[in-house]
Design a protein that fits this description.
alpha/beta; about 40% helix; two-stranded antiparallel ribbon; Rossmann fold; RlmJ; rRNA processing; 11 helices
Length: about 280
Amino acid sequence: MNYRHHFHAGNFADVMKHTLLLQLLSRLNLKDKPYRYIDTHGGAGKYNLSEAPAQKSGEFLSGIHRLAQLSAQQKKTAPEGVRHYLELVEKLREQEGKGAYPGSPWFALQEMREVDTATIFEVQPEVFQQLDHHIYDKRAGLHQRDAYEGLLGVIPPKEKRGLVMIDPPYEIERKDFPQLVELLQSAHKKWPTGVFAVWYPIKDRAMIDRFLKKMSKTGIRRQLVCEICVWPDDTPVGLNGCGLLVINPPWKFAEQAAESLKWLAPELKMHDLGGSTTVKWLVGE
């Protein structure tokens, strides 16, 4: 498995994932008690969109680049969660150059408070070295470890509260993601009150329907589906859209996510029939 996020950093899927990640953490910040943030596939922590991998794919051009090119007045019309995401991207670029783009561990540590802690996994040696170089924060524990077995070893955390961000390389998953479903069942059984956010690609709608049907049959309650599609579902381009399945979403997160995705959709769509969004309960209380 040789997946490298460097080719995809800053694309529309990253925009969606990171905007909603920040909103999940902002909701957790509303309570005084500390929490743990766990990132199962932390990647390099930061990326440079001016370097060869990103330039070769050009995916960022239809993602963060589009939003960065908006006028100040257009950005003002964005929901608070989207504005906050853009402000953090700009903060890093002011520090490290216009090609800089953060990964999820960097975003999370910006949003977390001093009392909160992070556990970040990355199994690939070369990428872990980059993560170790880019993320230096006393609140973060970095682990070169396979998250499919590592996650179950660190939950439930001592804080009892927290969020697990799961964004695996789907090249190693089969069809309707059985390995992921099994991991979620085991993790939820160990930590039923934890918040679990699972990013997934939308390439084949039938496959996603099977995945969500499997999840609905797990017996896990409070599963929220958030999706954005920049192409129509049946377009053979590789990645038509993406989703975030959130187990135990915090109070009011669904409404905030719906508002953000509705604003992002017309800015990120790649086709006149693209730009659709969904925020719905897969399983309720």
